[in-house]
Specification:
The structure holds two protein chains of two kinds.
Chain A: E1 2-4, H1 7-17, E2 24-26, H2 27-38, H3 51-60
Chain B: H1 3-21, H2 27-34, H3 38-50, E1 55-57, E2 60-67, E3 70-71, E4 78-81, E5 84-87, H4 91-101, E6 105-110, E7 117-123, E8 126-127, E9 133-135
Helix pairs in contact in B: 1-3, 2-3
The chains are: A mainly alpha, B alpha+beta.
Chain lengths: ~80, ~150
């Protein structure tokens, strides 16, 4: 997961590396993902979200579809 | 000690030592910290890997390559926080270090294509928003197929 100044440099990077263009996430969405994943990481009860919890988190941030579904085989 | 308790003890030691020093500890250092045999720590590393809590260094199970959001090796995502320097595994984890430590942080990263310096900052529990974007090249179902690439 790389950082880019703009969509334009993402497209240039994808073309240069022959990698398909995939979803973009803005910094507010990225921060919310970081909080969901890591805010309790240094505590006794910390754990990684389950697949269903991940889908719920992604959906709450507008990240929908099979790309964001950890159980999806569509991208195999 | 029950397996779950031991796993928690090793996990907490790993994260506490990383937070304190900026460096992800190895099995020997964790063994000394919590006073258990190194072989037991290595067994726990295997279970924590299965739970996707850590990624051992390929070819050297005594070392930890990733204790997300922290990286065991220098990366393109250095993070300054609490007067220490950490390394994040990716742009998501750069914010993740600030979220995990609950403090202000700054990451002097760069554009993945041009190399232009781009700074990510967290102040008072919120990101300093800029019009940058993160590109997720790998779908969620495959992040752990090759986590280093992801």
């Amino acid at each position: 997961m790389l950082l880019f100044r703009s969509e334009e440099t993402v497209n240039q990077w994808c073309a240069a590396h022959n990698i398909p263009r995939r979803p973009l996430v803005d910094l507010e969405q990225l921060w919310q993902l970081a909080v969901h994943w890591y805010a309790n990481r240094l505590t006794v009860e910390s754990r990684r979200p389950t697949s269903d919890e991940m889908v719920s988190i992604f959906n709450s941030l507008g990240l929908t579809g099979p790309f964001w579904d950890p159980k999806s085989d569509e991208w195999r | 000690m029950p397996k779950d308790d031991l796993d928690t003890k090793v996990k907490l030691a790993m994260y506490e030592m990383t937070a304190e020093t900026g460096r992800v500890p190895n099995s020997s250092e964790i063994s000394r910290r919590i006073d258990i045999e190194e072989n037991e720590v290595l067994t726990v590393f295997g279970r924590l890997h299965a739970k996707r809590i850590l990624l051992p260094e390929p070819g050297d199970p005594r070392r930890i390559r990733m204790a997300p959001p922290f990286s065991g090796v220098p990366t393109a995502f250095p993070v300054e926080a609490n007067g220490k320097q950490y390394y994040a595994n990716c742009v998501w984890d750069a914010y993740g270090i600030a979220a995990a430590l609950h403090c202000d942080a700054i990451s002097r990263a760069s554009d993945g294509h041009t190399g232009e310096p781009l700074t990510l900052e967290v102040k008072a529990g919120a990101p300093v928003l800029k019009p940058y974007v993160a590109h997720f090249a790998v779908p969620a179902g495959h992040w752990w197929d090759d986590l280093i690439f992801t």
